[in-house]
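B., you asked whether I could sanity-check this one before it goes into the benchmark set. Here's the sequence:
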Amino acid sequence: MTHKLPIEAIKNLLIACHEAKRVVELQPPLPEGLTPGNLKVLDYIEYLERTAQPPKVSDIADLLQVTRPGITRLVSELQAINVIEKISDDQDKRIVRLRMTDAGRKIHAYYIEQYHGWLATQLTDISEADINTTAATIANLYQTMSTHKPALQGQAPAIKQRMEKNND
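And here's what the prediction gave me:
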């Protein structure tokens, strides 16, 4: 069997992914009812409000490359905790747009602007190119692992647990 990349490099990449999971766990805890997915949607709403106009659900779905029902669920969760609201389009009242509430803006300011801003001041020895390469590598790895099933799947050796003897 030939390997395009050295196995040692793949092992190092997977170890780095485990460390990345630990890094994510060090972020400030989110308020009850808010998930990382919700925060990502909130960030896209803020971005689209700032660069164009309040977005539609379909705009968020397109940016995140997910289905509309998936985004609709996240939007409903954000509405339930009063961080976004639905508004009618000025030109076409049939179109519903999304807008952050004051509470949503405060959450966005803290978790995205302030925390990410602080982190940017701490990571001065890492180049933007390195950050972009790391993000692209992780995205590529995720895409590969989530869409390609290895030929070895289901063939892992079984491990039998030994029963401990009680010598009482």
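One thing to flag: The longest strand covers residues 84-88. Otherwise nothing jumped out at me.
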